[in-house]
Every structure is written in structure tokens, then in C-alpha cells.
Amino acid sequence: MAQQEDVFKKIVSHAKEYGFVFPSSEIYDGLSAVYDYGQNGVELKNNIKRYWWDSMTLLHENIVGIDSAIFMHPTIWKASGHVDAFNDPLIDNRDSKKRYRADVLIEDHIAKIDEKIDKEIAKAAKRFGDSFDEAQFRATNGRVLELQAKRDELHQRFSDAMNANDLEGLRQIIVDQEIVCPISGTKNWTEVRQFNLMFKTEMGSTADGSMTVYLRPETAQGIFVNYLNVQKTGRMRIPFGIAQIGKAFRNEIVARQFIFRMREFEQMEMQFFVRPGEELKWFSQWKEWRLKWHKALGLGDEKYRYHDHEKLAHYANAATDIEFQMPFGFKEVEGIHSRTNFDLSQHEKFSGKKIQYFDPELNESYTPYVIETSIGVDRMFLSVLCSSYEEEKLENGETRVVLHLPAPLAPVKCAVLPLVRKDGLPEKAREIVDELKFDFATHYEEKDAIGKRYRRQDAIGTPFCITVDHQTLEDNTVTLRERDSMKQTRVPVDQLHALIHDRVSLASLLRKLR
Ligand code: GAP
């Protein structure tokens, strides 16, 4: 675990050193849980967004996109339930004056018990070698059974308190388990209070006063309130979907793990409107399609798992997360929710407008049911970055840091490098750049020895380096170096476009989704 934490720290500093992610307002000492994307980060992020957008709007003829405003009428958030119920339970430590999410303190405590169990198992596995039977050990070892019973009891108590919104119950768990503040080390806790996560601001400055508006905490409501507009103007027939990518804001109490939990982040959400009664069929279908989308990137099938929700929001009748194995454990990257007709019905009620669909096949009107797929761009970015980072030991004893980014997502697709800065090689290299740059993000680099330039491109995940040497001037061939294998092949300049396109095009990725 400690080793994984070290790797994560290295990934965070690599992201900064190579222009992927910078802390926001850094010259003013930063702003907590807010980050900026640098010159390479923005390209990677845009490529992730394009992959998602095209997979939705190009591959499904019944899905269209929108781009709604961040500011919306404040009653929307009353209707959606966010004003009354978008809360986290918070607790303060009186000595350190630090604020925590009570549920996170308890979850971390449960995770520590899990770690103890894992350690017992790892010790036994080492002792027994090949003959080790983990299932049998879990079922019979006294220490493991004792820890597991303690964990299960605690988990049950925790989920009961969360389900019942029992703030005093949560506090009592923290007291009974003697959970201490990680900063002060004391148990001097305040009461647990509800904290609404929406940011508020004022709009307008009329004599009658201004209106309180919210920065949207999810993009989904912008889709719901445009349902009628899109359905009517696009003559959409159910089932159909509306997709949107955009910023969302949450005043997270505890923001941690780099860009995993931010206060300003980006979501890619799609609401799929279906006939009542068909929602669970579509829920399973979207679960399958979304996992396929993730796996097509080739980051490793074993790094994904579903986590079905035990506790459902009052408006949902099924929900699951797609979790990804980050260096700090399996974590939610995407949520797939069957939201019934809750949101549209609420907007119908609060706006007084009829939001119904006349189904010509059934010859009846109804409020559509909704399947939502909701993925965080930044979390997706983090999962791609973490699984691509490698400190590779080379045969000559050196180490190279390489990002094995899926080629269609890489910020730079190819770098053209003249071997030396003379003899007409830079001019020839520039000629090649001028051909390739219309289709691929292409870098030109002439500074430093060729090996150093290769390493710099490896560190930002560039799939191909094209080296121009003296032979190029004679026979119009170059060496094409592949990032992962470091294999170099001699190829004619006029074949470069096809060779690169084959590997880096988004279409090659989208075709895997067929
Ligand atoms: N419309 C449904 C919705 O917003 P959610 O589970 O609260 O559901 C969806 O959020 C996704 O948004 C999450 O799976 C995660 O990827 C991303 N997300 C949520 N809060 C985030 C935060 N504070 N920082 C970064 N990403 C976040």
C-alpha cells in the first residue's frame, strides 16, 4: 500500500512536470481542490471527451447532444431535491479545527480493518506458498474471523445510520470506535451537522434585490429541463438520449487524492428516455455498453468492476458504479442510474408545464423513465494517467519513465526529430511536419541528443517518433520508433500518414464498440 502511495505521488509530480495538471492559482499558494490542465493535459482531456461524445452521438442515431448554461433557475434545484437533500454529514475536531466528512472518517476506519485482514492473508500466503487456500484460511483462521466479524458489525451499524440520516448515530460510531483526528490525534469532536454541497452566488442588482442562484452540482438537470425542447425540435422518438459535457461544482468538505475529488470538475452525462416498465432492460444494456467503452481503451480488463448500490436514492430503482483500480484502491469513475420518472415529474410539478410524451405505437401519453450514465472527465483522466505511467527498467540498466497512453488519447501523436541540426535535416523534418500536422498533433524537436528527445516524448506518451537522418535525403525514408516496444523500423516518408493513422485515429477505438 505504501508503495502504491509512493507511485501515486510520483504520478502527481510527473503530471505537473510535463504540463498535464497544475494546482490552480499556484503562485498564490493554490486553491484547495481546484486544478488547471496544462498544455498536454488539455489535449488528453479533450481526446477523452471526444471519445465519449462520438461514442454517444455518432454511434447511436437516437442520441443527440446539448450544451446548457451553468446558471439555471433556482427552482430547478428545489425540484431536483438538491436544495433540501444534497448534503454531506460533517464533523469538526475542536483541537485541530479541521473539518471532516463523518462518513469518510468511518469508511477509512473500516478500510483499516480490511487492511489488517489483507495483511494476515498475505502473511499466511507467504508461509504456505503454493498450497495456500485463501477461501479456507478466511473461513477458519481465528484472527481473520474476529476482524471480519468486527468489520461486518461496524459496516451494518454505519449503513443503518446513513440510511436513516441518523447524525447522532454517526457521531456515536466515531466515539465508540475511538477514531482520532489525523492532525491533532485527539477525540475532541463536535456534533455531526448536515452541510449542503451547492455553491451559491447572487444574480442581478435590481432595486428589488438580486436572486440567489447556484453553480450546478451536476449537468443532468440542464438535460431534464431541455427535454421538451429537444424532443420536439429534433422530432425524437422514445427511446432516445440527450448527452452533455460540462462543468459541475460541489463544495466538497474533504477534497483529496489530487483530481479525484475536486470542487470544480467536469462531467459527461447522458440521459436516456425510455417507456415506463422498460427501464431495467435499458439499465442492463447501458451497464454493458459503458463497461465496453472503458475496456476498449486497453488499460486492463481486470482493473474494472461494477459496484451495485445497496442504498438507493428514493427516486432510483437500480444503480451501479463502474469502479477503476486507482493506486489508492478501487474507486468510482462512473455511475449508471435508473432514475425512474422522478426528475421529469418533479419539473412538471414545480414548473406547471406538461412534460409528457405521446407514444404513437401505444397510442398513449406518459412521463418517460430515465437511465442516466454519468462519468467524471477528471476521474477518467486520472484513471488513464495512473494506469499508463511506468518506470521501466531497460536492459542497459537505465530507467525510462513512459506513459503508455492509448494512442488515440495521446496529446501528441508523433514527433519529428532531425538527427542533427545541419546538412538540411531540419528543413526535411519541417517538410514532414507540414504534411502530417493537418491530421495529427505533431511536434518538431531538434534540441539535445536524440536519446534525450525520445525520453521526453516517452514521458508525455507520444506513440511515434520519426527520425530524419542523412539517408532520408538520399532515399526519402525515415526511422519510425514505436513508444512501447521502442522498436525502430525504416519506412518511406509517403507511408507515414497511413501507418500513424492506423494506430492513433479515434475511429480505430470507436470501431471496437461495434
Ligand atoms: N447526475 C448524477 C451524478 O452527478 P454522481 O455520482 O454524484 O452522479 C457522477 O457523479 C460522476 O461525477 C462520478 O462518478 C464522478 O466520476 C464525478 N464526480 C462527482 N463528484 C466529483 C468530484 N467532487 N470531483 C471529481 N469528479 C466528481
Outline:
With 514 residues, this protein is α+β, with helices and mostly antiparallel strands.
Fraction of residues in H or I helices? 25-40%
Question: Could you tell me which ligands this complex binds, including any ions or cofactors?
Answer: glycyl-adenosine-5'-phosphate
- Shape label: globular
Number of strands: 23
How big a fraction of the residues is strand? 25-35%
Q: Total number of helical segments?
A: 18
Characterize the largest beta sheet: strand count, sense, and whether it forms a barrel.
7 strands, mixed
Widest beta sheet: strand line-up = 3-9-10-16-13-12-11
Explain what this protein looks like in three dimensions.
This protein has 514 residues and is an alpha+beta fold. It contains 18 helices and 23 strands. The strands form seven sheets. The protein has a seven-stranded mixed beta sheet with strand order 3-9-10-16-13-12-11. A five-stranded mixed beta sheet has the order 20-19-21-22-23, with helices on both faces. Helix 5 runs antiparallel to helix 7 (142-163) and helix 5 (102-128) crosses helix 8 (167-176). The longest helix has 27 residues, at 102-128. It is globular and about 80 Å long. The two termini are 38 Å apart. It binds glycyl-adenosine-5'-phosphate.
